[in-house]
Design goal:
108 residues, 434 Repressor (Amino-terminal Domain), 6 helices
Length: 108
């Protein structure tokens, strides 16, 4: 398990991404192009600078390390299965009327 500050964890992650890319014998330019991210975004990731999850996922795919992502988001978990709300139902907002009723009840 990795312990440390966010900056330390980002540095370790970046180092691991870089090493995996080099093991695959892929240049930064090729990795950026194949993953669909900018060269600057890839360099930021490898240098342990702030990056997006999308950049991380895209790069992990092309360096054959998508299993790293699957460890924290297993494939059996999908957002389609997680339904936070039914999109066919109309949203109902709370009204201040209920708040006023509650005040009247407590004041009696």
């Amino acid at each position: 398990m990795i312990f440390g500050t966010r900056a330390e964890i980002l540095k370790i992650l970046g180092k691991n991404i870089r090493e995996a890319r080099l093991e695959e014998n892929i240049t930064q330019e090729e990795a950026a192009k194949r993953s669909g991210v900018s060269l600057k975004a890839l360099r930021n990731l490898e240098e342990g600078k702030n990056t997006s999850v999308l950049t991380l996922i895209s790069v992990c795919r092309i360096i054959n390390k998508i299993d790293w992502i699957q460890q924290i988001a297993p494939p059996e978990f999908t957002f389609e299965r997680l339904q936070l709300s039914d999109p066919t139902k109309k949203r109902i907002r709370a009204s201040s009327h209920k708040k006023n009723q509650h005040k009247n009840i407590t004041q009696k």
